[in-house]
Amino acid sequence: MSELMDLYQEVILDHTRRPRNFGSLDSATHRAEGDNPLCGDKVSVALELDGDVVRDIRFEGKGCAISTASASMMTELLKGRKVALLATAFRQFQDLVTGRAIEPPEDLGKLIAFAGVAAFPIRVKCATLPWHTVKAALENRQQPVTTE
After folding, report:
1. Three-class SS of residue 111?
2. 29 neighbors 138 (Cβ within 8 angstroms)
């Protein structure tokens, strides 16, 4: 089990050091800001929708390793997929990071690396901030979302 945990940590570190889909998205049709005042994470998520498909998704901001890696992997999961996937994936991810998931959902792909977050409840807000922010973007919320 130690080898598996080491692999998961390496996946998170890789996405922290080299985040995917990081940067601005001038063609965005939806945007939202997110803030975790407890630890200072700030994230902005921008999406370009083509009907009900996420044509492109990017994030910007500054945050801890967990927040950055979560945003990076989330954008990889959602890019090119139907918007309806978000609700299911968000619920599965929340269950995973809070320890409510009995089995890690295969649909989450590399995001199962965050299963260990459940042992550190204070980090759950870091991991879920990008997810709350993308949800707010899709709902066209104007006010920044917060984890508090």
Report:
1. helix
2. no
The dihedral of CA 119, 123, 126, 128: what is its sign? positive
73 closest CA partner among 29, 36, 28, 117: 117
List, for residues 5-23, the tens digit of each pLDDT value. Answer: 666 688 999 999 999 999 9
- Four-CA torsion 7, 65, 92, 138, nearest 10 degrees: -140
The two tokens of residue 99 are: 């320890």
Reduce the DSSP state of residue 100 to 3 states and report it.
Answer: coil
Residue 58 contacts residue 133 (beta carbons within 8 Å): no
Looking at this protein, which amino acid is placed at residue 22? F
Beta-carbon-side half-sphere exposure of residue 57 (alpha carbons within 13 Å): 29
Is pLDDT at 4 greater than 60 in this prediction? no
As a whole number of angstroms, the distance between CA 13 and CA 36 comes to: 20
Asked if 16 and 69 count as a contact pair (C-beta separation under 8 A), the reply is yes
Tokens representing 20 are 């995917």
